[in-house]
Design a protein that fits this description.
Order of helices and strands: HHHHHHHH
Radius of gyration: 20 Å
Shape: elongated
Distance between the termini: 31 Å
Number of strands: 0
Strand content: under 5%
Length: 181
């Protein structure tokens, strides 16, 4: 098989998939909201069980971690926008439709590049979602291992917001070096 034809077929997959990015992202938000609802609901049940006199271990840290992580997953689109706007100083880093409109361009290689960047945005949301899942585990950890977990959470939030804002960051780097993208 010709390498050029293979690259064109893979590019075609990304370009065709780019028109569905907003639907994929909406589906991810629904899935994350459902997971967050289940986690927050389990924290409410843990709060109800906290009054049990026979229970020896403190559950307040578990309840707080589950509540923060669960609510964060429910509001994932808001929090991702807030983190990206704070870290990268962007007005609207969430416009995934932008990637599909760029993918509909005339230059096939550029269209494939923008479609791949749109896929990176979706990966960024998954990365931030996994950070909020890690927040829910903080209550179960010993004080010694919480530092590693917090580092993992912050690095995922930073990496996820960078993936969400990848095209804006690429434009900023291109403008700062004098190279146009």
């Amino acid at each position: 098989m010709d390498v050029h034809a293979l690259a064109e077929n893979i590019s075609g997959i990304f370009i065709n998939l780019a028109s569905e990015y907003s639907a994929i992202l909406s589906g991810l938000f629904i899935i994350f909201a459902f997971i967050g609802f289940c986690i927050s609901g389990s924290s409410v049940f843990a709060l109800l069980k906290a009054g049990d006199a026979h229970r020896q271990q403190p559950v307040w840290g578990v309840i707080a971690a589950k509540m923060v992580g669960g609510v964060g997953m429910i509001d994932l689109s808001f929090w991702a926008k807030t983190w990206s706007a704070t870290l990268w100083s962007l007005d609207d880093p969430l416009g995934i439709e932008e990637y599909s409109s760029y993918a509909a361009g005339t230059d096939y290689a550029q269209a494939a590049m923008y479609a791949a960047l749109g896929f990176m945005v979706i990966c960024g949301y998954v990365t931030i979602g996994s950070a909020y899942l890690k927040i829910t585990q903080l209550g179960y950890l010993s004080p010694e291992s919480r530092g590693n977990q917090l580092g993992s959470i912050f690095s995922r939030i930073l990496a996820g917001s960078a993936l969400i804002s990848c095209m804006h960051i690429a434009k900023a780097l291109g403008n700062s070096t004098g190279l146009s993208t």
